[in-house]
Write a sequence for this structure.
């Protein structure tokens, strides 16, 4: 995810027990760097973090980064990154993102018009993702608040836990969308049989995979409201509530669940009139921030649902991973 020119205020919250990250300490509000230039979500576990090197190299060539000398070319791009574990899922243990792929990704991002649709499903960090036996993937969601502020999320869903209730087949996150309908019991029974068969096939095919499997769900939640680094830190933390609504169980030792929060600071957090009121300014700011915090959890939950619905079945040398839409339908 490429930040606008001038960077973005950023924060991170890691709650999984097995994270793979880079440059996350730079986001601590107590530390020097105020803005970041890009965020990388990648597969390939610790190996895949090399993709961030390609992004850093491209940014340096553009003269973008933290200025460290009198020459405008003397910059150090700040690019936090997090990786999920999908090694061996394609059948080749050594297939993983590298610096060249990172460079290709940031080049494509720079050429993409703002507001363009974001690819979902078996793409990006979600390419090799699996969630509770179902094919995982990449999903997005957004909301425009009454104030006009936008809050959006992208999630790469790759969890030890499940996105669907094993008793009914209903997506957990759908409960928070007001969708309480459950799949037909016969459809659910057939889905369970197909999942069991897929598990047996994967056990035979996936010699390159790790047993028991490791995972990690990654997300970025972003807003155009002007947040301080401490406020962004709070947003990263509450956004994890969205993961907890949509994935059960979550934040396990075999997950490295990580959420980044970004602020482009294009809009004031609250109106100038409200902030100028000595008696109520602080309450106006707190109220505006609370709306963003609540929306952050909501859009992360919805992004997980979108990832589950957009993913498509994968059958290959690394195993058979059925998609929710192929078992229960896409609606």
């Amino acid at each position: 995810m490429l930040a606008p020119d001038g960077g973005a205020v950023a924060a991170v919250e890691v709650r999984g027990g097995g994270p793979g990250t880079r440059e996350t300490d730079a986001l601590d509000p107590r530390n020097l760097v105020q803005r970041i230039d890009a965020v990388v979500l990648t597969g390939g576990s610790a190996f895949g973090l090399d993709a961030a090197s390609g992004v850093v190299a491209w940014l340096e060539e553009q003269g973008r980064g933290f200025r460290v000398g009198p020459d405008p070319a003397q910059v150090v791009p700040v690019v936090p990154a997090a990786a999920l574990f999908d090694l061996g899922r394609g059948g080749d243990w050594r297939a993983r993102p590298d610096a060249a792929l990172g460079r290709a990704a940031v080049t494509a991002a720079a050429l993409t018009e703002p507001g363009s649709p974001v690819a979902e499903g078996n793409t990006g960090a979600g390419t090799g993702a699996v969630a509770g036996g179902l094919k995982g993937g990449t999903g997005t969601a957004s909301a425009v608040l009454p104030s006009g502020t936008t809050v959006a999320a992208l999630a790469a869903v790759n969890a030890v836990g499940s996105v669907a209730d094993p008793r009914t087949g209903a997506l957990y996150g759908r409960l928070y969308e007001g969708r309480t309908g459950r799949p037909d019991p016969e459809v659910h029974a057939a889905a369970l049989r197909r999942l069991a068969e897929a598990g047996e096939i994967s056990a035979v095919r996936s010699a390159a995979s790790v047993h028991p499997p490791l995972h990690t769900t990654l997300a970025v939640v972003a807003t155009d409201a002007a947040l301080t680094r401490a406020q962004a830190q709070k947003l990263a933390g509450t956004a994890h509530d969205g993961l907890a609504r949509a994935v059960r169980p979550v934040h396990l030792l075999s997950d490295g669940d990580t959420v980044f929060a970004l602020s482009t600071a294009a809009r004031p957090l609250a109106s100038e009139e409200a902030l100028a009121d000595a008696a109520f300014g602080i309450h106006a700011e707190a109220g505006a921030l609370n709306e963003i915090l609540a929306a952050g959890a909501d859009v992360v939950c919805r992004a997980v649902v979108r990832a589950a619905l957009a993913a498509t079945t994968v059958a290959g040398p690394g195993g058979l991973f059925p998609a929710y839409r192929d078992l229960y339908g896409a609606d």
Q: What stands out?
A: Residues 95 and 233 are 34 Å apart (CA to CA).
